[in-house]
Amino acid sequence: MTEAALDDFFSDDIILPAADGYKLAATLFLPRGPKRHAVLINSATATPRKIYRGFAGYLARRGSAVLTYDYRGIGGSRQRTLEGYDQPRSLSGFEASMADWAALDATAAVNWMRERYQSLPLNYVGHSFGGQALGLLPNNAEVSRALLVAAQAGYWRLMTAPERYRVFILLNLVGTPLTRALGYAPGWTGIGEDLPKGVFLQWTHWVNSPGYLFDDTTLAGRGNFSNFKGAMRALCLADDPWATRCAVELMCAGYSAIRPEVVTIAPGDVGAARLGHFGFFRAEHRETLWRSAAEWLGVE
């Protein structure tokens, strides 16, 4: 184990086998004292797991075993070149979709945590796509409590203006032609990290559909939404132009076996100038957003 900068938890970088054997980069955070909960943190699209390190460490200090991981093609789960200075290999020709991220990667992460910590309740934190993915998982019934952060049905017309028009142009008029030409979606267009071609094109298809992923008749995992019967709280950050209240509610409606609690948080509620799509995970919210989230998850 590698000792963290703060001496009240450990962190260790590990390899997590996906359902098809693909090697995913992951980090396990453990408290120095007794482990009382297991928490799986699931990332947003094009977002590496390092973004969630601070929040994961916070939960570990409060007695949780926490796992973060990168979806295939992202961060440490992107394959490396065999020559030179261990640079990331081009994603051109790399086969992956958002459905794969859920069915192969997130499903395996839930299984890994459930098998390793059988005696502990398993909680799930899903940021953006991470919250969408929960409904697609065949094993989502293993999750006791799910905290969704800015997790939405991302139809472009549900975003605020003018951001909705920027996103439409970026995905359809810039990103799609580039992706088809290059064989992958380059991050420098403004999407975050580079994305595999299949991920980007499926994401764009969903964003163009009024029901988002619920309109995708090829998506086998849609039927798993009704299997989740745990507690769910969905956080809507009031100044987030992507995960608006109506978009969050549409995503939550897919969890038909339960009645998710949707909570809107304005920046002023926590003494912040802005929050946006990623603001929840900034360390400055340790005593406000993080504390409230940990208490709801039951992490004492």
Uncertain spans:
1-5
Widest beta sheet: strand line-up: 1-2-3-5-4-6-7-10-11
Radius of gyration: 18 Å
> Which structural class is indicated by helix and strand composition?
alpha/beta
Choose one word for the global shape.
globular
How many strands, what sense, and barrel or not for the largest sheet?
Answer: 9 strands, mixed
Number of strands: 11
Euclidean distance between termini CA atoms:
24 Å
Helix percent reads 25-40%
Assess the beta-strand content as a share of residues. Answer: 15-25%
Task: Describe the overall structure.
The protein is α/β, with parallel strands linked by helices. The chain has 7 helices and 11 strands. The chain has helices at residues 53-61, 98-116, 129-136, 163-182, 197-207, 245-253, 286-297, and strands at 2-3, 9-17, 23-31, 37-42, 64-69, 122-127, 145-149, 184-185, 195-196, 231-237, 261-265. α2 packs across α3 (129-136) and α4 runs antiparallel to α5 (197-207).
Question: Which features would summarize this protein structure in a list?
Answer:
globular, alpha/beta, disordered N terminus, nine-stranded mixed β-sheet, 11 strands, two-stranded antiparallel ribbon, 300 residues, single chain
Question: How would the blueprint of this fold be written?
Answer:
Layout: E1 2-3, E2 9-17, E3 23-31, E4 37-42, H1 53-61, E5 64-69, H2 98-116, E6 122-127, H3 129-136, E7 145-149, H4 163-182, E8 184-185, E9 195-196, H5 197-207, E10 231-237, H6 245-253, E11 261-265, H7 286-297
Parallel strand pairs: 4-5, 4-6, 6-7, 7-10, 10-11
Antiparallel strand pairs: 1-2, 2-3, 3-5, 8-9
Helix pairs in contact: 2-3, 4-5
